[in-house]
Every structure is written in C-alpha cells, then in structure tokens.
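Obj: model holo form, ligand = adenosine-5'-diphosphate.
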Amino acid sequence: MAILARNLFVFFLFTIFAGACYLTWSIEHRLPERTYSEFRYCLSHHDISDMTFTGNRVVISHRAGETSTNPGFTYVTMVPNPEELIQELKDKNIRIIFNKDQSELILQGLALLYIVLLILVIVLSLSKIKRDEKESKFATDKLILPDDGHKVVTFKDVAGIPEALEELEEIVAFLKNPTQFSQVGATIPKGVLLQGPPGTGKTLLARAIAGESGVPFYSFSGSDFVEMFVGVGASRVRDLFKEAKRNAPCIVFIDEIDAVGGSRSSGSSASGSDERSQTLNALLVEMDGFGSSDNIVVMAATNRPDILDSALRRPGRFDRQVNILPPDIIGRQKILQIHAAKIKLSPGLDLHQIAQTCPGFTGAELANLVNEAALMAARGGKKAVDYTDFELARDRLLMGVERKGMIMTEKDRNILAYHEAGHAIIAKSLPDADPLHKITIIPRGRALGQTQQLALFDRHAYSYHYLKDRITILMGGRAAEDLAFDQRSTGAQGDILQATEIATNMICKWGMNETIGAQAFMIDDSGFLGGASQRLPMADETARSIDHEIKTLLATCYEDAMAILSQKFYLLKNLAGILVQAETLDNEEFDIILACSEKKKAADDISDKNECTTCPASQSCIHSKIKKTTPCIL
Ligand code: ADP
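Output (holo structure tokens):
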C-alpha cells in the first residue's frame, strides 16, 4: 500500500507541476482584453485588419500604421451578439474568420486522459504490490522456523553417513555461537555443497543441521527459481537473500541446485538458458555479497556435480563439498533401526540380517523398505512385522510386484526353472562367488525369474576372479537351457548384456587382460546417476583385438558353465524339477537338495521313488510346499 500512496503522491505532484507550467505559459501568452465599448471605439477610429470569432470571444488584430509608433496590435473582447456585427464588418472590409469553439472538447479530452492516467497508476501500483507480496511470500513460504510446530530433525534422525556429520558439525557450532568464531577471526564456509546419489539423505542432513543449531531454515528446490519469464528467478534470489539476512543466523538450502547451477556453456534453449544464467549470476553475486558476519550458511544438494558451473565451486561460494554415498552394512542397519522404531517388529528380528540383504540401498530406499514391510504385514493381518515381510518387500522394491496373472505354459516354466537352476548351481560351485540367497521362478516386474546372491560384506573393489565367476554365473542360465533342451530362449538376454558389460569393463577400463594390457579404452560418466560409458578413440586394430578378447572371455566363461553343469546334470534336473513345483527355494533348501542329489547319485539305491530315503531332511522333506505337492521327487 505504501507503493500505491507513493505513486499517487508522485502523480498528483506531477499534475500540479504540469498545471502550474500551463498557467505560467498561458499568462505569458495571453492576449490583452478590452471591453466591448473599447472595441466599438477602435472599430470606428482604428484600422482593424481581421477579426477571429470563437463563439462570443473575438480576437481583433489591428493593422500596423505607416509609422513605427503604430506597430499594430491584437487583443480580445467579448461580443454580446456577433451576428449583428457581421454586416458592419463586411462594410468596413474587415476579414472575418470563424473558429469552431473546441475548448470544451479539449477540456473533456484532457479530463479523460487524466482519469486514464490515474487508473493506470493505481493498477500498476497494485500489480507491483501483488508481485512484491508474491515474491516476498516466495521466501517466507519456504521458511521453516525452529519452533513452528514442525518435527525438528536432528542428527539422531540421520545415520549411515558419519563422515558427513563430522564434517558439518562445525557449521552447527558456528550457527549456535557465531561470536566464538568471529572472536578468533575464523570464517566459516559460506556455502556447503552436498553431493551424492538421490535418496542418500542430503535434504535430511541439511534439515538436521538447522534442527541441531535451532536456526530458521529456508528450503528451496532449484526449479523454484526457474520461471518462464527472464529475470524472475534472479529477483527471487535477491529477495531470498534479503529475507535471509533479516532472519540471520539461518540456513538457506537449495535442493537440486543443478536446475539453476548447471554449466552456462551447456545451455540449450536460448530463453531458458538466459533465465537460468541470470538466476545463477544473481546467486553468485548474492553469495559474494554477504560476509561471514551475516551469519547465513547456504547449503545446496545435487546428484549431478559433474554438470555444475565451475563458478559455484570457487572459494567464497560453495567452497566445502561433502560427498554423501549409500551407507555400508553398519550404516544400513542403523538407518533401518531409525525407521523401524516407528513400526512394530516381531521379537528377535535381526536388522543386521536385513541390512545384509540390501547392498547398495540408500537411506530413502531403506525407509521405503521398512514401510513396505509394514504394509505387507498389515495386508497379511499380522500383529508385527517379521523377516518374511522384509523379504517380500525387498523383492517388490527390487523387481516389482508379483505378476500373479501371468500365464506361462508348462514348457516355458520348465525352461525357466532350468535356467534359474543353472545360475544357482554355478553360483554354488564357484569359490569366489557371493553366497546364494534365493532362487525363484515367480515373475516380478520385467523379470521372469531370479537367482539372488548376497554378499556377506560390502564390496568396494572387485577381483579378476570374482568378476570372471560373475560372468560364468550369468552364462549358467543359457548353458542349462542348451544342456537340457538343446535350444535357446530369449530369457538369457539380460544375462548376456550384463556379462558383456562386465567383460568389456574388465578389458577396457580395469586393465585385466594380458594381451590388451593396463590401458584405459573407456571413460565413465562421472555423475552419481551413472550413465553410458564411452569408448575412447583407438586404432581399428586395437578395437578388433579388444572385441576378440571380450568374445574369448565370454566364450571361456560359457564353456566353464557348461562343464560344471554337465558334471552336475543330475543336480540340475532335480533342482529344476523341484523349482517348477515350489517356485521359490532358499539357500538352505538348495543345500538339502544338493546333499540329497549327491547321496542319490552315489548310492543310486532308492527303493521308493516317492520317498527320498537318503534325504537328510526326510522327516520334513525339503520344503513344506514341496511336501504338499509331491513328497519328494528325488
Ligand atoms: P536426498 O536429498 O539425498 O535425495 P532425502 O534427504 O530427501 O534424500 O531422503 C529421503 C528420505 O530418506 C528421508 O526423509 C529419510 O526418511 C530417508 N533417509 C535418507 N537418508 C537417510 C539417512 N542417512 N538416515 C536416515 N534416514 C535417511
């Protein structure tokens, strides 16, 4: 409203000024006025050249005399009855000019213009007020105050990223007590860039810092700044910092900063990149503009640090960069503990065991897993969440929902069972492979079946033998199909792709081939989201050798798989047969089938085909599901 009052005041001032100018001008240029009697006198005694009538108002011009003492003059008078005068003027041969009286029209026009201008001033002022309100709301809307009823997030709610917490503790100390730092002349980083894959807890960490230090927290997403109109983002950035300075000490958090902070050299659309680069410039200027005495800490998060503009990382801006990666097994267990505290767990449930089955899961995925498990338990009418719920929830998250409605022919199910059994037997037979966890032929998501292995510990580096065994396991599915049916199915597509990827990386990136040597022929996309690797330029001859070596490695692994399965064909047959009926088998069940099969093969003395006399678990047989369908097919 102050804007409206100010603009109206300026407008009225301008009106008064314009009126005064007009008045001065008209006084200066006003013709002298004479009475009608004086005019009558002049008419009879002087030489009038012409008379201009505008209604009753007449401008009279006298001709100049021959002497310089009579230069001629003009004046105005009011004539009561102009028509009566006309004949007399004609007789005196005076030029008569009639002007239309437009003064009223002009006055009306001016009044209209004045009203229009006044309305324009009011409308523009009101829209500016509205815009300003919206912009200032833009910042205040995103403000989370420590005591406004939101659940305060603290470091207790964050787990699995101890290094990041340690690194950011001093920011908390600074925000809690800035003078302690300023006294000794220490300056705290103005900007902290949290970089890591999605869901690793970057936003959570920023909120925890605000919660721990008890300061206001402005939370934005990079895309909040980017609007269709060039300049809006920049003005929002300015408003935000103005607002933040008012509420200092505080934290300004910009999630997905790559939306505005992407490299300016890689802008695509002209206007879009204009807006983005203006917003980024405004951000850079604002970050340069405030000092450590302003007590504002700007935090930003990204999962694409590779595309950020290098100006953002310059000292004095985001000069502290903290990497946040998916947690290790202990971290996963701690995150599970935090989220499982909100649900009812069945007594004795070991979260470490669950953490072990989720390698590579981020904090967000673990939170989701806990929730899914709770939903599973609720759906099943259980009172508490048990291990099976977590297992089902994990499969659902990793592979999608069970495709119960999918109808497969008996033959296809048989092929699938052999395929998965092939993977499982190889996984069990190779020394460097991860332990077997589960084999299933229940279709989920895009996968028809799956053989799951679970590492006992998190792997950070992979050995040659581990990778080669991995390829051999992948080839196990195709080898089993070849052995059992002597024909191939499309089911091996995913395995072949994965095996080729591993073999290519082994040779082109990790220097694991004697002939090709330790030279990089491929580069990675460095973003956390991964991305396609690219082969570097190389000679045709080198490319041919690389292709040859990849092919040889894949062929060797396939032959190894074939050799193992040929040797254990009896087991393959048994396992596939049971899998068709049981649909899912775990490691323990596999071990029993293995032991049973081996004993059977050794003794080959089964008296009753329907009962496995040598089965170590003959009392309860292998699996309750198997027991229901067939007592034991071994
Ligand atoms: P990001 O910002 O990295 O994409 P978020 O911070 O938004 O991830 O995480 C989403 C959710 O996942 C959080 O609200 C929290 O419930 C859970 N989460 C993620 N990381 C962690 C963690 N380290 N500790 C506890 N919970 C976490």
